[in-house]
């Protein structure tokens, strides 16, 4: 899918950014899709990890991908900024509940009770 032309007119980080942006905009990479790690993608493409990281930072700045800490980088959800932030807050909440050993249905019930107050 991704190919970098070392003799291409644009820099490798820009080629990667453009190809990933195109795959996201066409739906080839759907929202929520986990991207390979920077190191893995760098190895697969024969690039320096900093080159891939630079592409990821540009894509994140453009709102096309989001980094979720140790979970990795994902294709960003579509929608307005408030909607995206709300989805991220929900993911963060569920991750914390899992860490506490709280099942998803119980976590949802806590939210319903809090909203009812």
Task: Please sum up the structure shown.
By secondary structure, the chain is mainly alpha-helical.
Please describe what this structure looks like.
A hairpin with a 5-residue loop joins strand 1 and strand 2 (73-75). Helices cover 58% and strands 5% of the residues. By secondary structure, it is mainly alpha-helical. The protein has 2 domains: 1-77, Arc Repressor Mutant, subunit A (Orthogonal Bundle); 79-117. It has a two-stranded antiparallel sheet. Keywords: DNA-binding, Transcription, Transcription regulation. InterPro entries: Tscrpt_reg_HTH_GntR, WH-like_DNA-bd_sf, WH_DNA-bd_sf. This is GntR family transcriptional regulator.
Could you give the distance between the termini?
A: 51 Å
Looking at CATH, which topology of the largest domain would you report?
A: Arc Repressor Mutant, subunit A
Integer-rounded radius of gyration: 18 Å
Biggest sheet strand order reads 1-2
Instruction: Provide the helix percentage.
Output: 55-70%
Low-confidence stretches: none
Strand content is 5-15%
Q: Average pLDDT across residues? A: 91
The main sheet comes to: 2 strands, antiparallel
What count of domains describes the coordinates? 2
Helix/strand/pairing category = mainly alpha
InterPro entries: Tscrpt_reg_HTH_GntR, WH-like_DNA-bd_sf, WH_DNA-bd_sf
Protein name: GntR family transcriptional regulator
GO molecular function, one term: DNA-binding transcription factor activity
Domain HTH gntR-type: 10-78
């Amino acid at each position: 899918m991704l190919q970098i032309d070392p003799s291409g007119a644009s820099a490798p980080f820009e080629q990667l950014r453009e190809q990933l942006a195109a795959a996201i905009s066409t739906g080839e990479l759907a929202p929520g899709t986990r991207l390979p790690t920077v190191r893995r993608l760098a190895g697969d493409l024969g690039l320096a990890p900093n080159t891939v990281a630079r592409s990821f930072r540009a894509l994140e700045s453009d709102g096309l991908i989001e980094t979720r800490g140790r979970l990795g980088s994902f294709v960003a959800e579509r929608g307005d900024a408030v909607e995206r932030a709300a989805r991220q807050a929900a993911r963060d909440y569920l991750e914390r509940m899992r860490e506490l050993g709280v099942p998803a249905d119980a976590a949802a019930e806590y939210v319903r009770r809090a909203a009812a107050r």
